Amino acid sequence: MSLLRVRAFAKCVARRSLWEGGSVRGALAHCCPLCVSTRSGAVRRISESAVQLQRRNVSSVIPKTGDAKKHVVEQSQLVCVLEARIQQLRTDAVLDVRHAEVQFVKTPSSGRGVSSGRGPKSSSQEKTDIPKSGAKGPSKSQQSRWMEKLSQERKNKLKKQQHHQQEIRRTVKEKAEAESKDSKRSSQMLPGTAHKTISTTPKKTIPLLKTNRGFMKLSDKIRAAVSSTAVSTAATTAKVSKGKQKESKNQQPSEEMQKQAAIVAEARAKEQAEVAELERRLNQQVTQWTSSGISEGPEEVSKGTACGDIQLSICSYMEACVFSGDIDRAQSFLLSQHRVMSRRKQLNTGVYNIMMRVWAKKGTLNQIGRLFILLEEAGLKPNLGSYSAALECMGRNPSCSPRVITRCLDHMKQDGLSVDHLFSQCVFRQDERDMVLKAIRAIQPDYQPCLNLTSGERYSSLVQDFYTQRADHSYPKLDFTQDELRERFKRQLSVEQACTVTIDSVEAAKPVTKNMAKMRKLLTEKRIQWQKILLQALCEHKMTLANTNTKDYRVNLYPYLCLLEDREYVDIMIQSVAHMPPSGESLKILAGNLGNRVFTRYSVRQKYQNQMVEKLDKIYSIYTDLLAKETKEYDVLPREQWCNLEMEHSSGPRLQGGETSWPYIVTLELGTCMVDMMVKNLKINSDALNSAHDRKLIPILYHMYTFRSTRQIGFIKPHPILTQMQQEAMETELIFDSYVMPMLCPPVPWTSVKFGAYLLTPTKLMRTLVGAIQHEVLLEKCQSLHAVLDSLNQLGNCAWRINKPLLDIIISIFNDRGNDKLDIPPPLSEAPKIDHFNPQDPTYTASDKAQMKREMISAKKKCSEMHSLRMDALYKLSIANHMRDEIFWFPHNMDFRGRTYPCPPYFNHLGSDMTRAILVFAEGKPLGPKGLDWLKIHLVNLTGLKKRSSLQERLEYANTIMEDILDSADNPLNGKKWWMNADEPWQALACCMEIANAVRSPESTQFISKFPVHQDGSCNGLQHYAALGRDVIGATSVNLMPCDLPQDVYSGVAQQVEEFRARDAETGLKIAQVLEGFISRKVVKQTVMTVVYGVTRYGGRLQIEKRLKEIDEFPKDSVWDASHYLVRLVFSSLKEMFTGTREIQDWLTESARLISKSGYSVEWVTPLGLPIIQPYHRTRIQVLKSTMQQINLQINHDSKERPDTVKQKNAFPPNFIHSLDSTHMMLTALHCYSAGLTFVSVHDCFWTHALTVDSMNKVCREQFVALHSQPILQELSNFLLHKYCVQLSTEAKNIKYQEYRRLMLMLAKVPQTGDFNLQQRSPALGEYE
Q1: 102 three-class SS
Q2: DSSP character for 109?
Q3: CA-to-CA distance for 391 and 369, rounded, in angstroms?
């Protein structure tokens, strides 16, 4: 029983054991003094940390029978036992835990019960000390099993304490001897610097005293590194415990104990000196870190988001009211929130500014004055937006007195705000800026805004030369004229304005049958009918919401349903029905998609209303001068050019920012409302497909419940009639949102966190979990994101086109029942038939029914998977076919680790083998002297052969198979089909075609090639670990060390696994014998690759299971056992090959564990200055109540919740390596751009023209060396120490000193590096995986 529960129980019993004096006195004769004071009617007090709890009034209870005395005696005996148990549990706790003192207060001697806390004080309130060794019961004859149990536990406790004391003496002596040996070496190093490498081999550690949860065991050397913090605590606790066990207080400590105490004191003093020196050294760095722009403590993000969701909901609601013209609703809502103090606390200055903008447009200065008064009442200060609205209103009002403007400017100055900051930081809309400037010039006629208020740009040392030394830079141009680029801009603008794109399906090439025509006609008629029904239902629902007699402070959906035209809402709903999968969709996902579509259209309408589109058109037209081929050369980057143009054309609205995003709960609620209308109103005749049925109207969508794992979720499923109609119609058109399509013009360069990529469609710079705002908060505070933004712009500026010959071949196979071997999914007509059976049929046995049920479930799952894969391929091929004659671009953004991704979700170069094969560069370059060789080497790499061969050997092999290469290019479907056996068959076929065209050209060196050649890293994660730790063995395995032949770590692991398997097979292990001949590089590759990214044995088993299922010859009934067996062998092989890597992994893992245990999320900054925070927190449930159902939202990214320690520590090593990987890619992208190279990436796989492969490899190697020449781990250690140790308050350090000290020592102990010289060779990206 825990200490708190024992106390609570004792407190409860003490309250209930009060009675009248006459019935008690006879029993008191046999009680101990403690029990007497308790049964006299005491008021129990618990004082903890000097906080006195409120005195409680306790009423007396009078027993009705003579049995009450016996019951009272038993209760008082239990009190004695429990109080003794409390004292015993105290001795189990660690010394730095402060416990409450339990005291009993005697009641007045009158015996009339307990006096009220409000009555006069009694003169007989004496404190009774709790006996240290327990308390005696009323009599020996009444001794119960509680007393016996307590006595036995006391004996066991004494034995354990004696054993602990012996262990402490021995371990302290061993530590003293070890420290004396290492004292010379450690004294020469800085405090906190690791003087030995972290090993994975177990080490004997110092046992801690047993707590109420048992012994703390230190399992590895990571925790042993900080176990010294527990030595002094354990020793001191042992001394105290032993002192309490002494029978005589006058006994003097023995000579041995004095020596032990001296050793412990010396160790503690040394450790405290080390911590003090480390604190002193860190405090000296505070100024330097503060100037870096990331100086806020770890608690500031969570504080800043405490009311974020509520404030965001209020702002979005009011802006929706204002946008739809319902000013009165917005004003009354604000006033209702302001009147009630509890709701007023949820408001911020931005909420009041929304109404200030409205009244500023109307020139109503007195209303703005009232809002300033409300701000003061709310305890808020006006900000730049408030004064901007006031000055705008003064500028619009011709009769405004100059004295009023002067007074406004004086108030601004008193609040520490300047006029220049007004123009540089405020987000102006329409003509607001001009009106503000007009008001200021009424006082200062010659005033000119100073927009560039930065004190100088700060760059990382990695890119300092890139930005400051540009003499040899040669930025590439696009192969377009200015007029062509401007025309493309207008086309893209019209696409985004419409928000949707309608394209032809590749299935349209099929001949139209009579049934297809019938189904298409029926669907068209029904959709027209459904549109009318939904329009009427939407109007009725809006009227209901508008007339609902609710309180003003209640938020409803009415403003959100007035943002667009009614027909637009209906079109969104009809479109979602057309895309509904036959198996249905989760209500939460479907509602979220509908709400997001409404928000996207609303954002586009906002930009038109704010007059941003006209300014965007003007600036982009001038911006094309930087990109067009016929214009002059510039020495500025696209981001810099765009910012310069915005400053030159500062009049009018500001392009960057200004839109308020919707909270996820609002998006979901709006979408749920639309789904509810669809389910209730969309119906079809039951005899639509079969006239034999009785005619009645039935819903086409059903709201049902299903289970996902152990959770019951709402599900929207289409009726089988609708599914059959859509499948048989095979409609010729597909409707997509505009952001799904590639852009028809170069993307707008990223210039800030909130502006870039698409022209009108809202896009986030960083992809995050829905509702997570901590990433955005960090990005907005960061002032050194230029290198990150420029690398994203470089990736987005690469122009693409379609490989039309290959696309036609793929479409022909797609429409001809597909091909599983070539990853072309077949249609649902090829799906297995689902056999239904009657469970009540007596002819089936129980086993037959169970088997048929399993087969039916398996068939349904297979059909669902086939439909998903088929639709995915249909979307990709249809988009590619739509863009077949176009040149297009992929705007990029990134995830929270910095890894970059194209924004269009379906069709991009990060897709499958099929998708990559049909993409080529829009610009071609001649092959040059070595381009053809690189094409041949690239082809061999795509086949998966010759992994351990040198580049020259691969080239020679390609020359020997030229006949197969040319045959594949000429007769891909009717020839030898050599290309079909490659690992990446479609890319191999595309490469065969390119090689054939090159060798048949008059001069191969002059052949213009648009084909991208890939250069992939040799297990990139292990490369980074080897470079961080300067690990010679690891560096050799992943081609960081010079070798005669390229090393292939995957083949090496596969070879070692095969050796283990052969050995087990000889001993008669059946599964090892079954696996003979099936262990290959491909089977183990994914697991080896992801081990360094934190994959578990469970995840690794699933990966191997998937690979084994792909082998047709492997027995399917052995897949489960084989995957379990192989994952164990793979992990054992990696443990033997990469021991050095685990040292860094363990340090990162343990550091993250201690940080999250302290209550903070792990945060760091990449070498390029990108701030990263892990969004893993404990899950909280938020319930959304709707007319359909309650939706439980599991939110695990809320920064107000405590961090999820398991996820934080497991994710830190892979996320940190991912961030280094993305940093290397960004550095390579920037320097390739400055060299005029075409460059794109798929994470660690880099693409360029065959002509420039050597140049790109050189840049890649140089940037890898430059990156890892930085003291990355030491800088990480410094940052974490600054973030989680330096800025902790003194009070926090004192409260959790042991925790704080352990964290500080761990973060300071950076793993020692090896002897590998990084300058010998950098990563051989030419050696393909």
Answers
A1: strand
A2: T
A3: 12
Q: 233-291 pLDDT, tens per residue?
A: 444 444 444 444 444 444 455 677 777 777 777 777 776 676 676 666 666 665 554 44
* pLDDT tens-digit series, residues 19-47: 334 443 444 344 444 343 433 443 333 33
Residues 866 and 856: their CA atoms lie apart, in Å, by 15
Q: What is the pTM of this model?
A: 0.77
Q: Any idea which residue has 């990736």 for tokens? A: 795
pLDDT on residue 461: 85
Contact 1212, 455 (CB under 8 A): no
- Match 């196979």 to its residue by tokens: 813
- The reported pLDDT for the residue numbered 967 is 94
In angstroms, the Cα distances linking 204 to 92, 192, 944 are: 23, 22, 47
> Is there a contact between 1038 and 1323 (Cβ–Cβ < 8 Å)?
yes
Q: What phi and psi, each to the nearest 5 degrees, are found at residue 888?
A: -145, 170
Q: Which of 739, 742, 702 is nearest to 719 (CA)?
A: 702
**Phi and psi of 1117, rounded to 5°?**
-75, -5
- Residue whose C-alpha is closest to residue 456's, from 286, 294, 289, 291: 291
Residue type, 1316: F
Cite the DSSP H helix spans in 797-926.
Answer: 804-814, 846-882, 913-917
3-class SS of residue 1071: helix
Higher-pLDDT residue of 717, 52: 717
d(CA 1140, CA 1062): 27
Alpha carbons 1309 and 1301: distance in angstroms, whole number: 12
Query: What is the crossing angle of helices 145-187 and 228-245, to 10°?
Result: 140
**Coil, helix or strand for 601?**
helix
Structure tokens at 984: 């990446």
Cα–Cα separations (whole angstroms), residue 951 to 310, 933, 960, 1258, 1326: 60, 10, 14, 16, 8
| Higher pLDDT among residues 1324 and 891, named by residue | 891
Q: Where does the pLDDT of residue 1294 fall: very low under 50, low under 70, confident under 90, or very high at 90 and above? A: low
Q: 3-state SS of 654-714?
A: CCCCCCCCCCHHHHHHHHHHHHHHHHHHCEEECCCCCCCCCCCEEECEEEEEEEECCEEEE
Neighbours of 127 (CB within 10 A): 11
User: Would you state the structure tokens that stand for residue 315, as one six-digit string?
Assistant: 């702002």
Spatial contact of 1288 and 1300, defined as CB atoms under 8 Å apart: yes
Q: Identify the H or E element spanning 894.
A: strand 892-895
Which amino acid would we find at residue 103?
Answer: Q
- For residue 215, pLDDT beyond 90: no
Taking CA 409 as the corner, what is the angle to CA 406 and CA 411, rounded to the nearest 5 degrees? Answer: 110
Spatial separation of the C-alpha atoms in residues 615 and 861, rounded to whole Å = 52
3-state per-residue secondary structure call for 18-71: CCCHHHHHHHHCCCCHHHHHHHCCCCCEEEECCEECCCCCCCCCCCCCCHHHHH
Helix axes 985-999, 928-943, angle to 10 degrees: 150
Give the span between the Cα atoms of 1016 and 1019, in whole angstroms.
9
Stated as kind and residue range, the H or E segment containing 440 is: helix 432-441
Q: What is the DSSP letter of 74?
A: H
Residues recognised as catalytic: 1016, 1085, 1244
Token pair listed for 1112: 């047709």
Tell me the C-alpha distance between 992 and 978, whole Å: 10
Q: Which of 539, 1151, 82, 456 is nearest to 1161 (CA)?
A: 1151
Residue appearing with tokens 């989680």: 1284
For residue 503, what are the β-bridge partners? 734
Contact 1013, 934 (CB under 8 A): yes
> How far apart are alpha carbons 983 and 935 in whole angstroms?
16
Give the max Cα distance, the chain: 122
| Cα angle 9, 14, 15; round to 5 | 100
Strand pairing report for 919-921 and 799-802: antiparallel
The Cα 433–Cα 653 span in angstroms is 7
Q: What is the DSSP string of 490-539?
A: HHHHHHHHH-EEEEE-GGGGSPPPHHHHHHHHHHHHHHHHHHHHHHHHHH
